[in-house]
């Protein structure tokens, strides 16, 4: 089996009540205004009949997904192709991430009120760079999986508890509030280590930089250097991974955190070239994302934000799984997939989900043992 990326995506943003276009991003060839109006009109017609139109598929394999936020802004994603369940998940994640980006930059109250549409159009331009990165779907963002998993990307340094305490104290002193998206402050603590805080109009930038940063982070410089030593591996030296693990994604389902890494591919010049060359590092990151999407649209539950209303669940289109999975009387605990490039294996427990990539040379019957040993090695050494 071949795992492939989704097709090109175009994003449309309109006012929910009147259908006034606010912006379009994505594919170089924009949709005609008549088609944009039709996409808005069919959603409004369904709403008038008490029907929530979440998504549909064209006869040529294209897909469209709608989502209304705060009864004020409608986002529509149009894709040129891709697998049904996989593409739906990709598009719905995209709409949620774009909305969160808009809230981060402009604030939820500004978007919900729509007091001045022309001014809002101008203000939304400041979101374009972030939105364009989201449309790239993780390309060039190695190690970043949170846009897809909706879990916080983490690394596991040796002194994680000390760093967490410092971060908690720093955010509390800065009056950090995720519901008040006025300012995102970023400070460089060391080359390669930054701290960000989302806060309101206070404290001043000068006070945050001159007082709070030094107060909370100066005592932790050695711990910060230790986190730098972890590097792209994201795991401390106390964790020894098996040599047949190419890449992994581990999700803590309780804390909604994740850690992921791809091992450096080292070719031994003394060994003859293999009939099945290992995928490159960039391709491993891509395959890891694709396998996560494959598994969560068929077997494993998505790790979603709690306390969703029924209307939100309907708009999200929770039935992303293929039809054959809907009749299962049990919850699958393991899944494997053999592709032309590698073998993939995933397992889930009450607390974790683990996704692995291994070379094709690993026997299929041994994949479960490899995954179980990897999960134990990480959790026992780090408590993750």
From TrEMBL:
Domain FUZ/MON1/HPS1 first Longin: from-to ranges: 10-134
Pfam families: Fuz_longin_1, Fuz_longin_3
Source organism superkingdom: Eukaryota
Domain FUZ/MON1/HPS1 third Longin, first and last residues per copy: 245-379
Example of a GO biological process term: vesicle-mediated transport
Cited PANTHER family: INTRACELLULAR TRAFFIC PROTEIN-RELATED, PROTEIN FUZZY HOMOLOG
Protein name per its UniProtKB record: Fuzzy planar cell polarity protein
Species in which this protein is naturally found: Oncorhynchus mykiss (Rainbow trout)
């Amino acid at each position: 089996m071949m795992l492939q990326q989704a097709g090109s995506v175009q994003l449309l943003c309109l006012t929910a009540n009147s259908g006034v276009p606010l912006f379009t991003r994505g594919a170089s060839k924009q949709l005609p205004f008549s088609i944009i109006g039709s996409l808005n009109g069919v959603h409004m017609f369904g709403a008038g009949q008490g029907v929530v139109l979440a998504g549909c598929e064209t006869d040529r394999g294209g897909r469209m997904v709608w989502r209304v936020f705060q009864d004020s802004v409608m986002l529509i994603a149009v894709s040129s192709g891709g697998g049904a369940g996989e593409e739906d998940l990709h598009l719905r994640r995209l709409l949620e991430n774009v909305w969160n980006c808009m809230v981060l930059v402009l604030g939820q109250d500004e978007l919900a009120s729509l007091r001045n549409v022309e001014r809002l159009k101008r203000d939304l331009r400041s979101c374009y760079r972030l939105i364009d990165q989201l449309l790239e779907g993780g390309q060039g963002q190695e190690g970043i999986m949170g846009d897809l998993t909706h879990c916080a990307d983490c690394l596991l340094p040796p002194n994680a508890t000390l760093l967490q305490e410092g971060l908690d104290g720093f955010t509390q002193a800065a009056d950090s509030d995720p519901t008040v998206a006025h300012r995102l402050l970023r400070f460089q603590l060391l080359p390669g280590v930054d701290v960000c805080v989302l806060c309101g109009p206070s404290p001043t930038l000068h006070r945050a930089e001159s007082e709070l940063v030094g107060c909370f982070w100066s005592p932790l410089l050695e711990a910060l250097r230790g986190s730098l030593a972890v590097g792209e591996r994201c795991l401390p030296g106390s964790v020894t991974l098996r040599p047949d693990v190419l890449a992994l994604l581990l999700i803590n389902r309780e804390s909604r955190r994740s850690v992921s890494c791809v091992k450096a591919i080292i070719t031994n010049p003394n060994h003859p070239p293999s009939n099945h060359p290992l995928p490159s590092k960039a391709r491993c990151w891509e395959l890891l994302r694709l396998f996560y999407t494959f598994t969560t649209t068929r077997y494993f539950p998505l790790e979603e934000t709690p306390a969703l209303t029924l209307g939100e669940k309907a708009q999200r289109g929770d039935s992303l799984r293929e039809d054959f999975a809907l009749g299962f009387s049990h919850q699958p605990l393991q899944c494997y997939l053999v592709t032309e490039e590698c073998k993939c294996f995933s397992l889930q427990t009450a607390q974790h989900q683990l996704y692995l990539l291994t070379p094709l040379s690993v026997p299929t019957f041994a994949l479960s043992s490899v995954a179980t040993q990897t999960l134990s090695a990480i959790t026992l050494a780090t408590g993750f």
